[in-house]
Amino acid sequence: MSTTTTVTEPSLLEDTSLEEIPKIHSKLVSTFRSNKTLPLEFRLDQIRKLYYGILDNKATLLDAVYQDFHKPPQETFIAELSMALNECVDFVDNLTSWAKPKQLSTSLTWKAMRPSVRYNPMGTVLIVVPFNYPLQLALVPLIGALAAGNTVLLKLSELTPHTSSALARLVRTHLDNSVVDIVLGALPQSRAVTQLKYDLVFFTGSSRVGAMVAEEAGRRLTPVVLELGGKSPTFVLDEHNLALVAKRIVYGRFINGGQTCIAPDYLLVKRGIEKKLVPEIKKQLAVLFGEVISKDSKDYAHIVSDGAYKRIKTLIDETKGEVVIGGTKTADVESRFIEPTVVLNPPVDDSTMVDEIFGPVLPIVLIDSVEQGIDYVRDNHSHPLALYVFSQDRAEIEKIHQQVSAGSGMVNGTLIHVGDSSVPFGGVGQSGIGAYHGKNSFETFSHKYAFMTEPFWTEFATAIRYPPYTWKRISLFEKGMTKTAAFPREGPIPTTFVGRLFFRLGSLFRGGKAKL
Q1: Euclidean distance between CA atoms 507 and 514, whole angstroms
Q2: Are 210 and 313 in the same domain?
Q3: Residues 20-38: pLDDT tens digits?
């Protein structure tokens, strides 16, 4: 591996002892209760220190990810560190504005009381980090949690020991450890961490583990944000610019060794198009990763663990579809290398079509119509984390967007929507709960505290609320405080301001009130 800086690999850190975890948790709770994290100046200072800590340790972090699964350092910088750095800058630029109490627009009845929302920190939050993007998926939510004024416990993945050790050193060196601390370790540490009481749990990972995290949090009535996955479908509905379509699909599916939660999990291709699409995919694999993709290819990431390698190899070996690109003949167990593989016409119960693949395998399902493709997703893999559509037909695109429920998506592209911090990122249904990135992160890690200020002078108008009640007084309340409908009992409903205005004027000529 080559980087601009020579990196001496540091020793791996030891797992956090089970006895230490409750002490770390107690420390973070005490810090939050001390109000240390409330001043915006403190929050901004922590984000600034994190920003420069990332820059100062850039080569070490990139090398750590490479050590864990042969991931190209350039890819790690683009997909992980650049996102964290941008997030830091966005928060420093905007946090003061985002954190200001916001007065709400309301009706004249309530205007004098100035209904407002202020953003209060949730408290002590747990962030559980997965292996696939270990830098991005630790740092980006951490930045949002710190900006919102929380204390944070980060549980890092045991599957990426070099990266987790590097991140732990970064956090412990550059941030206030009474506000942010790290837990390292495998299943025993994960269990110990999740059994403690938090004010919010933020989990990124599989739907299976996410369900267990939510169940554990539910016992303590702890709110959760779940960033999960699922089988994200990709519709290919015409042959327009097929070379570029193939390139964008190959990029989305096979970067990071296919270990991306929003990767195109399978293609839904109109019958006949596959005859041109498959050769184009093969060409684009050569363009992006080289004519011969081997375990020594410098631009291609490997599988993160022995267990994941075995699972993915089994998916390919047991498929009932036709392997038209790749396969397992060149698979190498020692380096956990599996080359990009494309499977044509797998049945619905195929090894590649039951669960999220999370590896370098791309099934192609043939469809005869858009409607058939929509039904396929709804019947077999509803609520994916991402949805991609390659088409020039706006009606087709709109139909898919309306009828397939997904967390987010793109038209004529894959994956890169996650890089725009102004766009909320999150799932729906089985693919997750909640969203984050940029301002959405700040709001996710905050409680929207609603409040009003009731002036004493309004008493003359609001005293009607007090008992003893009479129907005469209630009739005054009805006329003054109850809204009158600007729509009839039957027939078309006015949806514009002008339409509602004419309805109200018409009601005056019908005896002073709307005929409902």
Answers
A1: 5
A2: no
A3: 999 999 999 999 999 999 9
The rounded distance, in Å, linking the Cα atoms of 70 and 332 is 13
Q: 286-290, long-range: CB within 8 Å, 24+ apart, which pairs?
A: 287/247, 288/247, 288/250, 288/251, 288/254, 289/254, 289/340
Q: Is residue 472 part of a domain?
A: no
Number of domains into which the chain is organized: 3
Least confident of 111-125, 399-413, 448-462: 448-462
Give domain status of residue 463, yes or no: no
Do 360 and 272 share a structural domain? yes
Do 166 and 75 fall into the same domain?
Answer: yes
In DSSP notation, 242-270 reads HHHHHHHHHHHHHGGGG--TTS--EEEEE
Hey, what amino acid is at 10?
P
Residues 216 and 124 in one domain: yes
The pLDDT, as a whole number, for residue 9 is 57
> Which structural domain range is residue 501 located in?
486-516
For residues 222 and 241, membership in a common domain is answered with: no
Bridge partners, residue 181, by sequence: 153
Q: Are 37 and 151 in contact (CB under 8 A)?
A: yes
CA distances from 357 to 191, 280, 322 (A): 26, 22, 17
Could you tell me if 268 and 249 are in contact, meaning their C-beta atoms sit under 8 angstroms apart?
no
pLDDT score of 511: 58
Angle of helix 161-174 relative to helix 58-69, nearest 10 degrees, comes to: 160
Q: Is the pLDDT of residue 515 over 80?
A: no
Residues 152 and 280 placed together within one structural domain of the fold: no
One domain, residues 224 and 237: no
Bridge partners of residue 154, in order along the sequence: 127, 182
pLDDT over 70 (residue 369): yes
* Rounded Cα distance, 387 and 415, in Å: 10
Nearest to 253 by CA among 174, 182, 312: 312
CA–CA separation, 191 vs 434, rounded Å? 23
Q: Do 237 and 166 share a structural domain?
A: no
239 is catalytic: no
- Note whether residue 2 is domain-resident: no
Distance CA 211, CA 203 (A): 10
Catalytic residue among 14, 75, 216, 227: 227
- The Cα-based distances of 377 to 122, 325, 459 in angstroms read 36, 24, 58
Give, as one character, the DSSP assignment of residue 132.
Answer: S
